[in-house]
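User: Here's a protein and a ligand (zinc ion). What would the complex look like?
Assistant: Let me lay out the input and then the predicted complex.
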Amino acid sequence: MGRAQGGGGDARVARAGRAGAARGRARGQARALGGVRAHCGGGDAREAEAPTNPLSRLCHTCHIVRPQRAKHCRICDRCCVMMDHHCNYVNNCIGPKNRVYFFMFLVCITFSSYIAIYLAKQIVDAFGWTILRCLFALLYGIFGPLFGFMLLTTIFLALINLTTNERINKNRYMYLKDEKLDFKNPYDRGYLKNLMEYFNIIPPVLLGIDQNEGELFATRVV
Ligand SMILES: [Zn+2]
Ligand SMILES: [Zn+2]
């Protein structure tokens, strides 16, 4: 009887132990799932939690582990390597493969805006003001400096090897921080090399990218 009661007690302890272990596993899975969901949703916030953990860069939409600087674009609905930003003017993400064309686009619209302003001034000086010419001057008076600012910002970011996305969210990305959590860009190789990398003259530095991610970098992420 005593053995039976003892056996029953052992069984209860064993069941309680299994139940506790199951609860522990469930909590662990819930935490992991929560982390995964967090990654899938905002994409970038949990990179701040575990930058060295590849799962922190998991994209559930694209079913890949993203390379370090890749971001998921909600408009294009895919991940983009070294995503700078999604440009509504060209209706596409700006990344390593098209950023040179985007740069030339900015140069063209900036200079064409200032040429338009100059021509508008010449026309006004010759023929005087009209409503249409006022609107024309106002339009390019706004867009000329705006495009110029965008061009200067793009050049500045190319010089320091930072994307627009990283500049805006630099406090959220652990890979842009040092041991003291101060800002530090590990991809910065100096102005000249940064510019050469921007214009695809030399390959980018792929810090923390292993062989498998390199394959993803080349084949599955745009
Ligand atoms: Zn994605
Ligand atoms: Zn996009």
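Summary: The CA atoms of residues 21 and 183 lie 41 Å apart.
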